[in-house]
# Entry
Amino acid sequence: MPDKVTLNLEEDSDKICEIFSNYFEEQTISAWKYETALRTAIDQGLVVEPTVKNLKILGESYVKEMLRNFKDRSAQCHANEKDKVKSVQESIFTLCSSTRIKKILSVARYTTDYLDKSVSKRVCQELQEEPQPPVTFKTLNSRAKLEFLCEKFGENGHLDLMKHKISGRFKQHLKQLYADFNLKLQPTINRKERKVLLEISKCNTQEQIDALLGTLYAQPEIDDSVRYIRLALSNISELWLSGLLLKEGHGEGWLQGHVYVPLFDNAFTYDKSFVSKRTDCVSSIAKEFDSEDNQKIDFILRNINDSSDYLSCEDKPSAKGVQNDLKKGMTIQKLMLKKWSNYLNSTEIMDKFEAITCQWKGLELTIFATRIISETCTITYNKGTFEVPKESGHGATFARLLAAVLSLRRLVYLNYKKLNNLLQTKQSYSLEQLYFSEDDEDILFKSDSTAPDEFVDNRTNNTTDEGLKERI
# Structure
């Protein structure tokens, strides 16, 4: 390979942009291709390690020069050429991070450092494959689609589906994405619960409710979840009879005592592994991070074994103050994911977890969550909104609310069980390997430490052992 100056991505960014610009000027718009432009830069000395950050920087440089050159020609462009530029701009992250591009950069880097001319020629010949079909949003898999939406419409890799506006042309794909990732809360109830909830949904008069309550209280032994349903129905029945829910002006304290506790909190009272805390409790999740302020929460579900919070809920009697509560909830969600990530050290595993919080606004319950999609992307979304009816005659609406709370309870417990099982597997594996974790959470460091590293441990700490990953 002839001697040439090696181009560094950070130090020679202007030179790389110049190479891209010259490529665009020499080619027609229809011939523009990212891979070809990249090979041109490699031929002129570009050596880049194909990390996510570097791939993104290269893609952004390519788009920057492409748009600048396109602007000079746009007046004479055909519609199909404009569409091509727009398509490349939208899908550049997928293009620049494809397996083929990573392979090209890896070979170029390896060739520069180690290979002679004959080996270099043979390796390069392996890349002469059939032309790949153009990458479009439709051809991406579900995870890649979400990554693309995060990059294009989110902020710093985070997409809030309740806040950020997404172009209308992607609307048709969102429904399938919601289904693929189970973003919406789905009913998770057993047969006995379903039977009672169906009976409640058929109650349109107070007489029917009283008759159903009589049947439920006549049963000598019932499951804990059915006991919760029975108590919730009895409580709401009294509120409907009194007409109190039809009156305006109820404060937060009144709603907590008459509505939130019997319809929401009571669902979590029968599991001995958890304890619920109510009214201005300090989040244990926030307390674990020195960089975060303590967060006072209206409702917290805390595990007795690890003293960690797995669900929180904020209460407001009206829309006033709800936005601040939602921001607080999102902060708690991110801290939950951060804590679990520190435990597991694996993005592949973390995408199976949801950090969930809730918000009461008067008689409306909203459940929302945050999930890690990849190393650089997270999403926040509304899992469902449910109403407490103000008067009888809306049995189905009330049954739907109870089904949602029961399903939420099981989802939160599932998060705990998955995390606990993974941690037990991790600790069991460490015993087999006769190796304890090197976590340094309890070590105190001086901020002005300047002494050299006299003792060095070459073992890596922030990655998951391959044997452990396979076991998990």
About this structure: The radius of gyration is 29 Å. Residues 13-135 form one domain.
